[in-house]
Amino acid sequence: MSGYEVDLSYLQDTVKKLQGVADGMDDANQKAQYQTNLIHTQIGSETFIEASNLHTAHDNMKTQLANMIKTLQTMIQEFTDKTGSAHDQYAAQDTQTSQNFSRGAS
User: Fold this and answer.
1) Rounded to whole angstroms, how far apart are CA atoms 36 and 55?
2) What is the pTM of this model?
3) Which residue of 47, 48, 63, 101 has the fewest CB atoms within a 10 Å radius of its CB?
4) What mean pLDDT, rounded, does the chain reach?
5) Per-residue pLDDT tens for 33-43?
6) How far apart are CA 73 and CA 78, in angstroms?
7) Chain centroid to CA 17: how far?
């Protein structure tokens, strides 16, 4: 046989693994958003001059982490969608090729 053959089960397995990674990112996002809160007094009292700066830096880091996680989730979802689409297209082509061979053999 000339040409190439695509392992559809590998593509399907890749989609499942990517979905697992995306699901794990949901957990990381929840932790970054809701389990890393520090109230101002946990960093230091009003007499600690840098307390306000540290609290602001903490809030900024939380925002940056949330943005990074969102970006990763978007990238993973796009790759998952494209991999799934490639799988579907190859599967449709494989079905069409099989039907064409069946018609030619009749």
Assistant:
1) 12
2) 0.68
3) 47
4) 84
5) 888 888 878 88
6) 9
7) 10
